[in-house]
Amino acid sequence: MAQLKRDIIVAGASMGGVEAFRSLAGQFTSSFSGAIFLVLHTTPEAPGTLPDILAREGFLPAKNARNGDLFQPGHIYVAPPDHHLLLRDHKTFLSRGPKENRTRPAIDPLFRSAAATWTTRVVGVLLSGYLDDGVAGLAAIKRCGGLAVVQDPNDTLYPDMPRNALKALAVDHCLPLAQIGELLRTLAAQTAPPPVPVPDDLLLELRFSEELMSEVETRKIGNPSTLACPDCGGPLWQVQNDVVTRFRCSVGHAFSAGTLLESQGEAVEKALWVALRTLEERARMLRKMSENARGRGFTSSHYEGGAKESLAHAEQIRALLMRLNNVAKS
């Protein structure tokens, strides 16, 4: 029986990810024996041209993953825009399941599915990016006997994702991007340990990426919190058995604590802008009513007073928005 290798390579990146993946692709030769799967945070409207870029950088064929296709060693498979990329058996699967960390494709679903399918054969790689998508996925890979590799935070302009991974778990390798390709070539030639059992909670979470779940099933992976999902408004459960604080709703939306905090901040800012616009429109309407009243010989002082009060409140909100903007820039 052929010995199994550490030849399932899954990698994720966010901001700065195109440049990181270009560099990584250029480090492989045509003899590379592993299969590589990549997730880059993109918008749903992205053209999906990353495989073309990567194919020009190195010797490995690159393509957008397709649903149900058999994958081959020595190839690069990229999650297409607006689809999670999942692995099952020797095939790639695409899912438009709930967003995780406010993005689809997200890194955690790929890492989680690889860990559940290939356990000790998996090497997870976390590169440049903002916040902490991929950290929970790396933890899942480690729980299933795989290896975790992160880019040296000092080697990227966007160090959040690697830095958060280093804070949360004991990674196996942390090194500059220019050295990761050689490391992966070495690991892909190593014999993998025997497969290990996959934790039940990991299998349950994997289902969230594939289908809509019920509130009862959500309760199986966590405890109820007093928080609401910023995407759908449903109650959030705090996920157990994880190295980072995470939350899921019954629909399946998932958030790290950092991502949830950012979502709440954006919701507050949006509400303040709506309030500002409404108060200014109210002031304009009151002034029109004041003019109409004066034209008809009626008193207009209460309309004028209401307009001034609305504008005063609007200025307070505008000042608060300016302070929030300055804090975000600092």
Task: Give structural notes.
The protein has 330 residues and is of the alpha/beta class. It has two domains: 8-188, 3-Layer(aba) Sandwich (Rossmann fold), CATH 3.40.50.180; 260-329. The chain has helices at residues 17-25, 50-57, 107-118, 135-143, 160-168, 177-188, 200-208, 215-219, 257-295, 301-329, and strands at residues 8-13, 35-40, 62-64, 69-70, 76-78, 84-88, 91-95, 122-126, 147-151, 173-175, 222-228, 235-239, 246-249, 254-256. The strands form three sheets. A seven-stranded parallel beta sheet has the order 3-5-2-1-8-9-10, sandwiched between helices. The longest helix is centred in the last third of the chain and has 39 residues, at 257-295. The protein is elongated, with a radius of gyration of 25 Å. The N and C termini lie far apart (58 Å).
